Amino acid sequence: MLAIYKKEVKAYFSTMTGYAFIAFFTLVVGFVFYMINVNNAQAYVGYALQQAYVSIMFMVLVPVLTMKIFADERHSKTDQMLFTAPVTIGKIVAGKFFAVATVFSVPVLVTLLYPLIMMDYGKIPVGASYSAIFGFWMMGLAFFSIGIFISSITENQIISAVATFAIILFSFMLRYMTGIFSGKAITSLIAICLLIVIFSIIYFLMARTSVNNVIIYTIAIAVVGCALAIGLYVFDNGIFEGLLQNLMLHLSLSYMYQHFFSTEVFDLSSVAYFVSIIGFFIYMTVLSIQKRRWS
């Protein structure tokens, strides 16, 4: 894993990709910090990191940094070398993820100076500001885990970049789309069943070449999942009131970041949330690579 990590980090800094990412990221976040915290005299650094401009920046930079992680190797057939290397798929994915995390962490380290700058202007919530920066870092890692997964399922870098951009944009827009759907329990039930079926289909596509009896498992997941949802609805449909809206908000990473860090109080559930997102997409990436390896 260490060899893969070093190779990926070197690749980013042997070209302009890593330097351009760091420079653009630092410029955008620094500008927002100046406008929100310095110019408007806001003591809490988290206010700058919650701005929509920052989310838009992720839409642009995450695809640029992740689009070739697996897609380029698949296109150039060099992924066959990885598959035959004496390293597990999990270590390959981990090495690449930690390489991206390292590049992303460089400009985040620069933001650690912002609370110190604000201390020259008066008293600030230092602990809350640094916890907001930590949460911002976790949110970024979640976005990058999504980008790595998308890169693992296509050999075209352009498709990888566009798909990653679209998913991050969709995640950002979900917080504004909650008013489109009804908050009634039956609407939430239908949406939950559809999501279960979609998840089952994705599982089948990802595991059909590496799991025995995958069709049986797929059908079982769909049937049991929908049956449990319907059973809960019959037992107490109040559980489903507004559930769709809450689910949409929880799928919006930018909203959840603002939700967890808008009160200037560090919440351990925020760490669990972002770690779960990162772990899920890393696991899906491993499944994707294993599928190609066995096929």
Tell me what you see in this structure.
- With 295 residues, the chain is mainly alpha-helical.
- It is 78% helix and 0% strand.
- It contains 15 helices and no strands.
- The protein has helices at residues 2-13, 16-38, 46-49, 52-66, 71-75, 79-84, 89-111, 114-118, 126-152, 157-177, 185-207, 214-235, 243-250, 253-261, 268-294.
- Helix 4 (52-66) runs antiparallel to helix 10 (157-177).
- The model has no long low-confidence stretch (mean pLDDT 83).
Q: What's this entry about, in short?
A:
Helix content is 78%, strand content 0%. By secondary structure, the chain is mostly helical.
Strand content: under 5%
Q: Taking all residues together, what is the mean pLDDT?
A: 83
| Net shape | flat
- Computed CA radius of gyration, to the nearest angstrom: 21 Å
Report helical residue fraction: over 70%
End-to-end CA span: 23 Å
The major beta sheet can be summarized as:
none
Structural class by SSE content:
mainly alpha
The counted number of beta strands is 0
Please outline the helices and strands.
Blueprint: H1 2-13, H2 16-38, H3 46-49, H4 52-66, H5 71-75, H6 79-84, H7 89-111, H8 114-118, H9 126-152, H10 157-177, H11 185-207, H12 214-235, H13 243-250, H14 253-261, H15 268-294
Q: Notable features of this structure?
A:
single chain; 295 residues; mainly alpha; 15 helices
